[in-house]
Amino acid sequence: MSSARHTPVVPLEAGAGPENPPCPACGEPLFGWLAGLPGSEEPVRRCESCGLGVVGEGGGVEEALAALDRLGGREAVRIANRNGVACALGNAGWAGLEPGLHYLFSVESARRLAAHRDQVVKRARWAPGAGLAAMWQTLLNSVTFGHNVALGALGTGRAVKAKHPWQRSIDAVVSVIGAIPALVIALPIELVAGIGGRGAVVSLKFELL
């Protein structure tokens, strides 16, 4: 009689160590994700449990909560969803990677952080207009030297320009020519993502327990 072999499950805690500090939101280890944000060499780590992304050295709960509050306030925020389809598709080209950020939030990480001050997420709602723009820019980032060039030109995002003038010229042309095709592709992807709970931008409302 043959016996089934079971692959042992390794808990996330097994990866904890100096190179994988604890996540400020849930305490699980942070693992390497990207070599750096656009325009920065600070490494970016992510939590495999709650989805939080941390740029550079991670701080504590209070620091992460303060960063979350800067996206709206203590009662309501709007986040670029690190657990969204746009992030999964774009990876280093994700439009949510903007200069100066220290924390990249998912709905779950925001929920766990809010729990530290006795709050719950009362409502998580996809922001379709902002989500479509983020998906659109993420697709354009795959064909430009710079990052978030189109949103930067429109004044709705922080762009990281390419290093060389000739690259910036190409980016301008590509962004104009590719705008409509990218929008046609982005629209159904973001629609499905939003309906499935993985939209690129999500508005959250908190309330006290």
Largest sheet: 4 strands, antiparallel
List SSEs in N-to-C order. EEEHEHEHEHHHE
Task: Report helical residue fraction.
Answer: 25-40%
Distance between the termini: 55 Å
Oligomeric form of this entry? single chain
What's the total helix number? 6
**Mean pLDDT rating:** 91
Which of globular, elongated, flat, extended, rod-shaped describes the shape?
A: globular
Q: What is the total domain count?
A: 1
Trace the largest sheet across and list its strands. 1-2-3-5
| Poorly predicted sequence stretches spanning 5 or more consecutive residues | 6-10
Structural class: alpha+beta
Task: Write a short abstract of this structure.
With 209 residues, the protein is an alpha+beta fold. The chain has one domain.
Explain this structure to me?
Helix content is 36%, strand content 17%. The chain has 209 residues and is of the alpha+beta class. The chain has one domain. The strands form two sheets. The chain has a four-stranded antiparallel beta sheet with strand order 1-2-3-5. Strands 4-7-6 form a three-stranded antiparallel beta sheet. β2 and β3 (53-55) form a beta hairpin. α4 crosses α6 (165-195).
Can you tag this structure with a few keywords?
single chain, 209 residues, alpha+beta, 4-stranded antiparallel beta sheet, 3-stranded antiparallel beta sheet, 6 helices, 17% strand
Write the layout of secondary structure elements.
Blueprint: E1 30-34, E2 44-47, E3 53-55, H1 61-69, E4 76-80, H2 85-90, E5 103-104, H3 107-115, E6 119-126, H4 128-141, H5 149-154, H6 165-195, E7 201-208
Antiparallel strand pairs: 1-2, 2-3, 3-5, 4-7, 6-7
Helix pairs in contact: 4-6
